[in-house]
Amino acid sequence: MIRELRDFNIRREEVEQLNFLLYGPVGAGKSSVINTIKTIFERRLYINCLAAEGSTSQTIYYKKCEVGNSKDGFLPFIFNDIMGVEEGDQSGVHTDDIISALKGHVKEGYPFNPNSPLTELNHYYLKNPSISDRIHCLVYVIQADKISMMDEDTIQKMQRVREEAKRMALPHVILMTRVDTTCEMTKKDLRSVYKSKRINKKMEECRVALGVQKSCIFPVKNYYEEKDINEDINCLMLDALTKIVHWADDYVAEYSS
Ligand SMILES: Nc1nc2c(ncn2[C@@H]2O[C@H](COP(=O)(O)OP(=O)(O)OP(=O)(O)O)[C@@H](O)[C@H]2O)c(=O)[nH]1
Ligand SMILES: [Mg+2]
Fold it and tell me: What is the pLDDT of the chain when averaged over all its residues?
């Protein structure tokens, strides 16, 4: 899977990288997903100060993350890290900013402002984005152990973004994190994740809350306390990534502006 992803060729030549936007509640593990993917491809534990515990979002700038390094080469993927969604009008990432990001209007480094969305007047606003600037797959990141406790407001915000993604025919998937804290059996043996009734129930809850079909929901575990590379963590994430990358490529191939 690593080789397949490293050698991945985007069908449309003018697009050099596939763009993924990670979106979900505060503390869902968005930044950790990026650390995990970097860890897999760079074969060393990747720690990023942006992954942290907090009641408000630890990620406050729009950050594009590349995978790979100049020695071994970079993969043709960019992961865009953003502020988490929160309840209420005055906190968390603004829904309009997410929709702008999907369409490619948000430049790297934009400091999110929960009170007011990005406007055309702001110098972080890209007026005429090309297909290369757009997001090619929306990736929801949701904690398996908190899905049933998610407040109505947060769910509604995420549903609004999903409606927009549907209108744009943009693929959208869910990475369901923290399967280790959700199921004891899975914690002991990550390979039994798809046998776990509890995990299956959580996937079903995700499907109902966001209307994303089951085949697009991937239970994963992020690196967070490990001291070494773990192939089981890698396999789950790589399986998800391989599928997601093909769907993003389908979107790019079919998109015509
Ligand atoms: N047990 C466990 N902990 C995790 C997992 N993924 C993330 N965490 C922990 O959850 C906390 C929040 O993770 P982040 O990656 O910072 O979450 P985020 O979505 O980027 O959060 P904000 O940027 O603040 O919105 C960190 O302490 C992580 O170590 C996982 O799969 N299992
Ligand atoms: Mg973060």
Answer: 93
